[in-house]
Amino acid sequence: MTEPKRGVIVRVHGGHYYVLDDGREVDCSMRGRMKRERLDTKIIAIGDDVLWTPGEEGTGIIEEVLPRRSVLSRQAPPPRTRRPRGGYTPPEQHTEQVIMANPDQVLVIFSLLNPHPNPLMLDRYLVACEAVELPVVMVANKVDLVEDEEDLDIARLYEGLGYTVIPTSVTTGEGLETLHEALRGRLSVLTGPSGVGKSSLLNALWPELDLEVGEVSEYTDKGTHTTVVARLLTPEPDTFVADTPGLRTFRLWDIDPEQLEAFFPEFEPYLNTCQFTPCTHTHEPGCAVRAAAERGDIPPVRYESYTRMFDYGF
Ligand SMILES: Nc1nc2c(ncn2[C@@H]2O[C@H](COP(=O)(O)OP(=O)(O)O)[C@@H](O)[C@H]2O)c(=O)[nH]1
Ligand SMILES: [Mg+2]
Ligand SMILES: [Zn+2]
Fold it and tell me: Where does the pLDDT of residue 71 fall: very low under 50, low under 70, confident under 90, or very high at 90 and above?
């Protein structure tokens, strides 16, 4: 019997699990006993480390999924069933969908101009990363388009909060080496609105990827089984990049409004000084967080994102 090999799942498609082996994707299926368990992303997902045995004609069999170091998941939309009468809400309305196993970091990519950054959307990404305790690197692309100092305000805002922000330009090459360093040797999830230059940045670092640029195809979020992450790119050994078709709804599993305050790091110094405990920091008198936002000690735009997410859901 051959010894099982160790590999990483780089693509999942219709019951086929592709494992990277010497730069080649091997089409694997699951060992029978694993199949009897629920065959969904909770068991195996892109990024999983597996033990597999080579089979016939370039195929393989997955013997075991190794323990995960981290996981990125989202709340899948509830099934489209008719709402029962009488106000009864059935339990388990939402199911967890694992976007990816073993991510090391999330790169939140935005452009300084064209399109203009949307702080609420960026804050959603950041809250999601804080919630799963994944390190974040922000990338402020299209610096070549900057004309006024004001165009850099948003980058300064996030730097001021303690996030790493790498200014980049595909046009001039600025920041590309720094970006390369950030990606090398890790599994990174790239996310950000469409049109900000995600594919262009990857092509600039690794031209052989030859990703499509400027496509307007909108990612639609139609159901539980939407493929959120198509595949892991492996542009160089041990470097994995998740090719996300624009994670529009980067909703994560189980973020209650009451937990939200913990995911805004700059709120921390004020949390225990509100007049009421618990305080939602939305309407209570004597709220230290709101007072800090009114003084500008907490950036007002961040406080606004907080209240929006609190009221309308994450
Ligand atoms: N001026 C400028 N345009 C860029 C830059 N990066 C990407 N673009 C352009 O922005 C558009 C969207 O790029 P794309 O990589 O498809 O964005 P994605 O949707 O995030 O993958 C394309 O027309 C690119 O040529 C940049 O650094 N500067
Ligand atoms: Mg793209
Ligand atoms: Zn408060």
Answer: confident
Q: Is the Cβ atom of 171 under 6 angstroms away from ligand 1?
A: yes
Task: For residues 66-78, give the mean pLDDT.
Answer: 76
| Ligand 1 in reach of 203 Cβ (< 6 A) | no
Instruction: Please report the atom of ligand 1 found closest to the CA of residue 200.
Output: 15
Task: Quote the pTM value.
Answer: 0.86
- Provide the β-strand partners of residue 137: 107, 164
* The pLDDT of residue 292: 98
Measure 24 CA to ligand 3 centroid, in angstroms.
Answer: 54
Helix (H, G, I), strand (E, B) or coil at 205: helix
pLDDT tens per residue across span 239-256: 999 866 545 555 554 578
Q: What are phi and psi of 262, to 5 degrees?
A: -70, -15
Q: For residue 303, give every residue at least 6 positions away whose Cβ sits within 8 Å of its Cβ, in sequence order, or none.
A: 289, 290, 293
Ligand with an atom nearest the CA of residue 142: 1
Which CATH number fits the domain 5-65, given the four candidates 2.40.50.140, 3.40.50.970, 2.40.128.20, 3.30.420.10?
Answer: 2.40.50.140
Q: Is 207 left (phi over 0), alpha (psi -120 to 50) or beta?
A: alpha
Q: What's 257-312's CATH class?
A: mainly alpha
What residue segments make up the domains of the chain, in order of their start? 5-65, 73-77+93-243, 257-312
